Amino acid sequence: MSIDTVSALPTYTTTAFDRKAPSVLQLVPNFDAGGASRLALEYAGAVQTAGGHAYIGFEQALASTHEMSRVGARAVEMKLASRNPVTTFNVGRRVARFAIENKIDIIHAQSASLAVIGRAAAKKAGCRLVTTFHDGPASVGQLTKRAHQAFAESDLVITLSHVTADEIARAIPALGPRLNVVPYGIDLSRFDPTQVTAPRVVQLANQWRVPDDQPVIMLPATFMRAKGHSLLLEALALNRDLDLRCILVGPDPDGGFYRKQLEREAAQHQLQDRVLIAEDIRDMPAALMLADLIVAPYLEPATYNRILIEAQALGRPVVAADFPAAREMLDGSSMAWVTPPGDAMALGWAIRDALSLPLDEREARTPQVIDNLRVRADRDAMTHQMLALYDSLLMDAHQAA
């Protein structure tokens, strides 16, 4: 079975069949710093720019909603949690009522957990339904029966990875051309090494007290066990002769509990003088430019990893856990190393090998890494493709009317 890519779609236009740009209600479990929320923001901004109306519905805000206002989207706090069919029915009715009152054209569920609610609401409100599968390929087989049915009845199903799309195609073959791959894209003007000024990098280096004479490796990720922080500490403990500075940085979804645990583990490994467990920061481009090596030793597969993409956009070398989706994201890079998930020894050797790359060789490879990434992960191309998909749904609806 072939999987359509959005590159085959017609150019997005708001003039087709004399219709304005769409009104889109996106549903995310919680508005936070995660990938689903970031994608919702990017798509919402594109809808607003195209002249449409964007709404983002969420159970609760775990991050500031000011970015929604910045892109022109309306934040809508909704009760989206559902644990049984009765609850789902009631939540679906509330979402449908909102969709009808605000003349929503498309409901876009940005998670498998919300696909069931999105399906119920779209049916009642007469909207089109788009669902995005954010989890890794291994999670396809774990879809509940209701989620499986919701995906099967969606007007479009989106995934960010060809590997995951292949799994969905096998699990739900009836989707056919309704299954589309829209690769994750980033703001290439923000993640451009020529735009990251030296003072920004120096400010972070001073803030984190980074020595000038030590290479810096960095694990930028949410502080969760699945991100492999403990594995990295173990790998560093096995390679004490490596002279380096390790920085762990990211948001705390648990209020700092896991961060405290990592501080204890670093002390147990006697790594306090080599490891900094930093607070989350806003200037990620500067942080990545400060690092000589980005490490992503994840313990579980994911459909995509924003940091792997951002790191390549800035020409940074990367060491990542060897999952199919990671290989897909790192494809073509001349400065990427993959290691077996959970293998501290292999991780340590990969870090050693990456840091041994001579500076002149690294500088020579950097343009190739950047150019390779820019043709595959452009935010503007991603949002344009998503708008084209929205447009195709509304055109189908108009022709069917």
Q: Could you describe the 3D structure shown?
A:
Strand 12 (293-296), helix 11 (306-313) and strand 13 (318-321) form a beta-alpha-beta unit. With 401 residues, this protein is α/β, with parallel strands linked by helices. It contains 15 helices and 14 strands. The protein has an eight-stranded parallel sheet, sandwiched between helices. The longest helix has 22 residues, at 379-400. Helix content is 42%, strand content 15%. It starts with a strand and ends with a helix. Mean pLDDT is 90; it is low at 1-18. It is elongated and about 65 Å long.
Distinctive features:
alpha/beta; 8-stranded parallel β-sheet; 401 residues; 6-stranded parallel β-sheet
